[in-house]
Amino acid sequence: MNTFQYNVILQRTGNGYCAYSPDVPGCIAADDSFEATLQLMAEAIEFHFEGMMAHGEEIPEPKSLQYHLNSGELELAPDDILTHVTITTPEFA
């Protein structure tokens, strides 16, 4: 088992927060509170990885925030909240 920290960006919405990780495209979470959204995001990433492994796909290794900013893959708004979630994964294939 490996433990990794995946960057997460949270954005305020009209009724709470939404979250995504630039390392896990298409995986999102949303809820009324910051804490619940962050917890749901961690669960969503873990669930996403389980599906990837079931289909024989490699789990993406986390990249640094600086990598995403330098690559142009990520543009942050002034009110975006940067944080991370810790995910435990099986050995990378």
Record the SSE blueprint.
Elements: E1 2-13, E2 16-20, E3 28-31, H1 34-54, H2 65-71, E4 81-89
Antiparallel strand pairs: 1-2, 1-4, 2-3
Describe what you observe in this structure:
The model has no long low-confidence stretch (mean pLDDT 92). The chain has a 4-stranded antiparallel β-sheet, covered by helices on one side. 30% of the residues lie in helices and 32% in strands. It has one domain: Double Stranded RNA Binding Domain. By secondary structure, it is of the alpha+beta class. The protein has 2 helices and 4 strands, in the order E-E-E-H-H-E.
Summed up:
This protein has two helices and four strands. It is an alpha+beta fold. The model has no long low-confidence stretch (mean pLDDT 92).
CATH C-level class: Alpha Beta
User: Termini, distance in Å?
Assistant: 12 Å
Which value, in Å, is the CA radius of gyration? 13 Å
CATH architecture: 2-Layer Sandwich
Largest sheet: 4 strands, antiparallel
The tally of beta strands, per DSSP, is: 4
Total helical segments: 2
Biggest sheet, strands in spatial order?
3-2-1-4
Helix content: 25-40%
Assembly state (oligomeric): single chain
What is the domain total for the residues?
1
Output mean pLDDT.
92
Structural class: alpha+beta
SS strand fraction: 25-35%
Question: Which regions contain 5 or more consecutive residues with pLDDT less than 50?
Answer: none
Shape descriptor: globular
Q: Might you state the CATH topology name?
A: Double Stranded RNA Binding Domain
Secondary-structure element string:
EEEHHE
